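Input sequence (302 aa), recorded before submission:
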Amino acid sequence: MWTLSIVAVSLASRLVNGVLSVKPLADLARARARDMMIKRAESIGVAWRQEVAKLAERDWSTDLAAVEDRALVYPEYYLKPFHAYDRGNLCWEAALEVEVAAYAVHARIWPEAGAEGDGRLRRAFLDVLIPDLGRAPRDVLDLGCSVGMSTAALAEAFPTARLVGVDLSPYFLSVARTCKRTLRAEWLHAPAEATNLPEASFDLVTAFLVFHELPATAARAVLAEARRLVRPGGTLALMDMNPRSEVYARMPAYILTLLKSTEPYLDEYFGLDLEGEIQRAGFTAPRIVPISPRHRTVIAHG
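Predicted structure, token format:
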């Protein structure tokens, strides 16, 4: 059954890739995906346009200057369009829309969840992680922290921990620094694969919904950096899309096209032997736990 599903998904994926190789069609798919997200958000009571307009009223220049490393050289993979933005995560539009988009995207994970789906997903991750830890971590690193939604969930779970959020987008970090100002968090503008943080300085390293946005080479580099940063006996905990979910195997080609138009590295993520790569990076064999119809938690130790 699974083999047949893989074949079906592979054929659909090749068809979709052919469509998306034509730029006007790719642009149309991205626009359609974005329109669907906005309508979904507003159908569940999330005032997408109003919330974004409110954030856009702020002069963000001081916030940007406070977090941006202007000498940073962005890796090539990060400069491609994704999430329906021509500049990917390197623009204000993406940064101001992250939170409302998360509510929209996760609204249908569970049919009854609506706008609470995003919070439920993050709690499901923590429900698996916390019993595994044994004791609360002192130092926590949130790789690919975006606008700080994942960092806020970690702060609630570990109120005494030192928190560091790392992201490649200074726009995202500006929003995190401002909108999550009550967190006791440090915000670092750096690649997750080259943070320049001290070796063995964290008890827990996390990545929420990051790996499906990476090409395989970057994913391996991030795992190597995570291993460098985790203390002996420390923990790596990832939450992301579950490639073995039947949701993706049964996904209609039209919906798959819209999804892939905003996620250019999805094929590489679905083809990545994440369990093997984690072990090759020097971690223990990971424990993998499905936490929603289409997400999984992956936990390994240093």
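Checked by second reader. Residues 23-43 form the longest helix (21 residues).
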